Amino acid sequence: MTNIRDINLNLFPILKVLLEMRSVSKAADRLGLTQAAVSNALSKLRRLFNDELLTMVGREMKLTPRAEQLVQVVDHFHDVVDTALSEVEFKPNEWSGEFVIATTDTVTALLLPKLVDTLSAHAPGVVLKWANIARSSVLELRNDVVDLIIAPPLILGDDTLVSRHLYRDRFVCIYDAKSRTSDGPLTLDEYMSRKHIATDLFSPDIPEFQNDFSEALFNLRNEQDNIAIVPYYAILPLLVANTDYVALSQERLANKLFKPFNLSFSPPPIKIPDIELAMLWSPRRQADPTHKWMRDAIVSACADWD
Asked: Which domains does the chain have, with CATH numbers?
């Protein structure tokens, strides 16, 4: 039995034209080859199929019964190859389904309004599902439970994922404007003397989740007087307003959502590195047209933030 690895697949386009034209000279003209080249290919095809394929009957060439059987097979073979090699045009307006993004409430609050507008206009059949990021998110990403992660790339401790930078943010202290008489930044003594609403999103005490900013937040959280530790940033203004509590939040979220609560913002009294947000995905999804379209939409939504 002939093994496909031993077959010269370049012969099949010539075979297809020979079966159609039933003439070496006409096939050569169609293919832009010399008659000698086509005759040589026909000789190889005859040996491959152990059949004459084309025989002279009177003054014209006829297909042998074996060649007649090959017509549909060869046509189907070419259709399959053409389909496999051609890039299918992706139409967002025809895309329907669910796209799952694992991230924090901060990113959801900032990105979702923009992405909803984009999807409504260009891909109305897509439902965006937002999942809370967790230690299991990377495994869920690899198993296609999650399509995309938006987070600080180093915090996940996995350098095998594909990533793309989105934007940077920084931390600010938030507190009720009425709780201070001074307009200046919070001093370290004043900061440490207050009770705190702390956040714990990424479990930075776990070694594989360590990086500069998570370590700084973790150390600070252990030293300050915490009255509560919550897994969300968006809830902070409800807990801080009309109290003398203080909390740390990302500046972009504070500027977007917190101002109606009559809160004031101050730089942290200690150095906390800026936070980088990136989207991360499995290399297996790199060329997926639906995935690429969504990544481009997210990059566009963040374009004016950096």
From this structure: 4-85 (1.10.10.10), 94-166+277-301 (3.40.190.10), 171-273 (3.40.190.10)
